Amino acid sequence: MSAWISNNAQLVTSIIVILVVIHLALGAAAYLILLERKVAAWAQDRIGPNRVGPLGLLQPIADGLKLFLKEDYIPGGADRFLFVLAPGLSVIAAMIGFAVIPWAGTLTIGGQSVKVMTADISVGIVYLIATASLGVYGVALGGWASNSKYSFIGGLRASAQMISYEIPMGLAILCIILTAGSVKADEIVAMQIGPGHQWYILHQPLAAIIFYTCMLAEANRAPFDLAEAEAELVGGWHTEYSSMKWAMFFLGEYVHMFVGSAFFVTLFLGGWSLNPFGVGPDLPLGGGIGMILLQFGIVLGKVFLMIFLTMMVRWTLPRFRFDQLMRLSWEGMIPVSLLVLLVTSFMVFMGWIGWMWAASLATFAIIWLAHPLLPRQANPNRRIPLIGSRFSPLSDKALGP
What we know:
Strand order of the largest sheet: 2-1-3
Helix content: 55-70%
Order of helices and strands: HHHHEEHHHHHHHHEHHHH
Number of helices: 16
Strand content: under 5%
Oligomer: single chain
Shape: globular
Number of strands: 3
Distance between the termini: 98 Å
Low-confidence stretches: none
Number of domains: 1
Structural class: mainly alpha
């Protein structure tokens, strides 16, 4: 048995990583809901859940039991097979994304070196784009199979949103691939660690902002949760869902947030690196069990900091209108991401990768100067003069003779 494990060390390591990360993601999804309720309470100067268990720590268990015991309702005119399949597709699409994330460096045991990741595949980060695009199927099928106008329109909105924001996300990832010269996630992390290597959030701040914004839109997180606008569409594409089917949609959302934050840490925050500037000491690219556990803990710490930022964004920014959301993607983020890609390609071609931060500042300046010159649509949210209004009064000139 020991000889088989020694001969298949990478396989055994990958299986252990799969088991640990899947259980961590599922447990985190349950307690991230509690964390979000606590963050919301803190942002709104409330107490939050504190009744079930010490400090409210058993609240996720109580919520899970409640969802298990609720009625599992399927509408009469629904497509039963697709109606049941849609929540599973949402969860699966969110959970398979972590396969290419390096959670730590190279583990050395008994003279053998293994990578602490699920799959060391050649396509690497391209796998992220492929798995991210699968999430739209669960949303679209859930809205269509419910046989409800509200769910159908919510599914259409969410599908259009997710497809639109995949374009700038892919362009932002391509900027990192060009800068690193590799599509493999572990090599991208390695290019951000050590003397002379800075985190890519310093080299590519615009790409980081674009990727993070698209990550929120892909996960249908506020302020991009238009498909769940209660005043317009009741509850979006999951209006007709209840019990654990309803919970699986939200499980997929929180797992997507966990995996998306891990990808952001991999691409822009140097993985397990503690030195963003490349001057002075940093953690190595590998080591023994102790070093690997330390690196794994640092990656998780960065992931949960990103999740906390995502929660604060939800409870700070108001929701966009749907036309504003689509305009932000097609008239804002896609042109900007194309400009960033053009500048990155030029800097890589000239061999000036070390000055990428200066090129990013120049890109900011170009956008700042060009923005007032671009054509704009009429403001659909303009104020209408009203008699007696303090904010938009009706002038005597408007009244006429």
